[in-house]
Design brief:
Blueprint: H1 16-37, H2 42-57, E1 61-70, E2 73-83, E3 107-115, H3 121-125, E4 147-155, E5 158-165
Antiparallel strand pairs: 1-2, 1-3, 2-5, 4-5
Helix pairs in contact: 1-2
C-alpha cells in the first residue's frame, strides 16, 4: 500500500495598476455615498479616496471603515478589508444608495483607517496625503447595525472585501 501526498504553493502577483483598478471601485462607492447622502461633497470623497489609494499602494492599510452618522447615530456603514493575497470579487461598484442625511441636518461621514504595522506615523508622513488624518478612539463595531456581506473588488490577488452594515 502506497500513500500519495502532494503540496502546492499559491502566489499572487499584483501591480500598482491592480491596486488602482480596485481603488476605482472604492472611489466610485465613496462618490455614490456622498451623492446620495449629501453628508460630504463628492470632492471630499475623491480626496479621501486619493489618500486611501496612496496608503494601499504602500501596503499601509488593514481596513477602511466608512460610516454615515446623523446627530450622533450610525445609519449605515461599510468596511473595506484590504487583502494582498487571494482576493476575489466583482469589479462593479454600487449598492451604496444611502439615506439622505445632509450636513445641514446633522449628517456627516466618518472615515476610520486601520493601518498595518508598516503604516507607521513616520512612514505615512512621507506621503502627500490630502486629509489631515488624526487618531480616533471612536467605536466602529457598528453594534446597532446589522451586517451583510457586500461586494468584493479585486485584481490579480489584490483586493478589498466590503462588509455592509444597515
Amino acid at each position: 500500500m502506497s500513500t500519495n501526498t502532494s503540496t502546492s504553493t499559491s502566489t499572487s502577483t499584483y501591480t500598482v495598476a491592480d491596486i488602482e483598478s480596485v481603488m476605482r471601485s472604492v472611489k466610485a462607492d465613496m462618490i455614490m455615498i456622498a451623492g446620495s447622502t449629501s453628508a460630504m461633497t463628492e470632492e471630499d470623497a475623491a480626496s479621501y479616496a486619493h489618500d486611501i489609494e496612496l496608503l494601499a499602494k504602500k501596503g499601509y492599510l488593514q481596513f477602511v471603515d466608512v460610516t454615515l452618522m446623523k446627530n450622533g447615530d450610525e445609519l449605515k456603514a461599510v468596511r473595506y478589508d484590504f487583502l494582498t493575497d487571494g482576493a476575489s470579487g466583482t469589479s462593479r461598484p454600487g449598492g451604496v444608495l444611502w439615506p439622505h442625511a445632509p450636513k445641514s441636518e446633522g449628517g456627516h461621514i466618518r472615515i476610520t483607517l486601520r493601518y498595518t504595522k508598516e503604516g507607521t506615523a513616520d512612514a505615512r508622513a512621507k506621503l502627500s496625503l490630502k486629509i489631515g488624518w488624526v487618531p480616533s478612539t471612536d467605536n466602529i463595531s457598528h453594534q446597532q447595525l446589522s451586517s451583510t456581506t457586500g461586494r468584493g473588488y479585486s485584481s490579480n490577488g489584490f483586493g478589498t472585501n466590503r462588509k455592509d452594515f444597515t
